[in-house]
Amino acid sequence: MTQARLAEYARELLLQRMCHYSEECYCAGWMTGNEATLWEIATTNRRQYGPVALTDDDARELRQLGEDAGGWWVYSDIGQGWKFVTLPAWRRIYVEKWGG
User: Which of 31, 39, 63, 89 is the most buried (most CB within 10 A)?
Assistant: First the structure.
């Protein structure tokens, strides 16, 4: 598998997993702040997402998918839907929007 194909696959799977956790934890296709909460789960010791505790394996998978994809998914409230951004761009968004 080429590096480009791996990154594309990782992006697709990352979006599926992020939507899955939002649905599992809040019965919402994309809970407000989903991207930030899952980032914290992937990059810190946080595992609780609403009523559900994600596992260390879940956190590792999210982190690895983000690294393989080279970015993170965000959701636009102004009708653009999901948008994939590079990891450096995501880190700036996270700091600006959530004070990370």
Answer: 39
Run of H or E residues at 36? helix 34-43
Instruction: Tell which residue, 66, 75, 59, 64, has the closest CA to residue 11.
Output: 66
Does residue 24 carry a pLDDT above 80?
A: yes
Spatial distance between the Cα atoms of 46 and 58, rounded to a whole number of angstroms: 11
Q: Which two tokens stand for residue 56?
A: 């260390």
62 CB neighbour count, 10 Å cutoff? 21
pTM strictly above 0.90: yes
Number of H helices, E strands in the chain: 4, 4
